[in-house]
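User: Some background: our group keeps a shared notebook of sequences we're curious about, and every so often someone picks one and asks for a predicted structure to add to the entry. Today it's my turn. The entry only has the sequence so far, pasted here. Could you supply the structure so I can complete it?
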Amino acid sequence: MATRTKRARLSSGLPAGSPSASLGASRGPCATPPRPCAAGGPQRALSQAARSADGNKQDPDPVSGFLSWCGRVGLELSPKVVVSKQGTVAGYGMVARESVQPGELLFAVPRAALLSPHTCSIGDLLERERSALQSQSGWVPLLLALLHELQAPASPWSPYFALWPELGRLEHPMFWPEEERRRLLQGTGVPEAVDKDLANIRSEYYAIVLPFMEAHPDLFSPRVRSLELYHQLVALVMAYSFQEPLEEEEEEKDPNSPLMVPGADILNHLANHNANLEYSADYLRMVATQFIPKGHEIFNTYGQMANWQLIHMYGFVEPYPDNKDDTADIQMVTVREAALQGVKGEAERLLLFERWDFLCKLEMVGEEGAFVIGREEVLTEEELTTTLKVLCMPAEEFRAFQNQDEWGQNKKEEDNLTITSIPKLKASWRRLLRDSVLLTLQTYATDLKTEQDILSNKEAYAKLSWREQQALQVRYGQKMILHQLLALTS
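Assistant: Of course. Here's the predicted structure to add to the notebook entry:
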């Protein structure tokens, strides 16, 4: 299971192919649209995904073809579960045909059945060219493996591809018109993250991917040399790939490269999931984490993800208040802006920037960073505490603080910042935090009351488009956290 990682963001947004502790299937709870099967469209035309591995005949039933393929590759599916579109929240999913007890094995995927740069048919070439394929995302080798296998006449993964969504209908905000993305998601941080993604994807494609494909025309047909297709595959990898966690002794290493896990990516997501993927030397195993009654859907999780992360990386959200891992960001420079509102004269202004520079040297803040507030905890407690402390302390105390050899050694118990301790903070700290929240709320195009009125009116909510509903849930969850902070700082 993915573990909670520090979610201070010292740079706004995420790089293309942003790794998280665990990535999984891209469909979640009831607010999501149906996940389309590969019954038509560009992806089916490109890959002929329903072909069986031992011939050119298309299987009219993608699930039957996939299950036959599972038997050939050793993917062991429990007789207690079934792959189905019936009884699932979004397209294909997995449902319990009998009740399942905690700890029971749902399915096991041999590592040989995983689709990765090491298992694909051009694995040797990708390994030889590894240094030339390095990129910011670290995902280029997998993406090239997918580009090759999708157009290979007899790819062994074709029955697996048949259960993929239609690439042209992915709902990540990177595929929304820019005007719609900015209008609906203003203030959430998503438009800025998408802008970085699109710039990184384009740069990665033209600098690395396209030259590699052109250098190997026998392996990549002209129809896969497309920036549009590359965008779609990046989104698919963001939404459907998995990333094996590092061992404790490896935590200083770069994250593991993503890989595709047939079977595991069929499962839909819930924060309150009932299954979890476990890794071993020979197999990846999906195991029940709680009792699953007969007829209930089996859900995985990709980790503790806020709604802005879910919509950005996976194309859906969990409606309020279901996502207990939702967060709101306060941009670090917004706290500086709030502090500047109270300065008097040039000397105080220069001193404030000196304090800010000091915080930058401590790596507590950054020009594009954000403080992250959850519904029940401050995820960036150390960074926010230190920032409030340094920006609010008297000038003489700041000079002494600057000259400490071990600045963190004198931390006082009252400096601990939790949601419940906010009302007990020093008045100057609370005032700065409140002013920062008010400035943050001004970045949204609508206020909380307007959105509460829509959410409380089922008819009005039903009239919204699916994208409008998803964006509303993102904004509303963030504003609820920010308004909770307002109440605590009053």
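Suggested note for the entry: The chain has a mean pLDDT of 87. The chain has 17 helices and ten strands.
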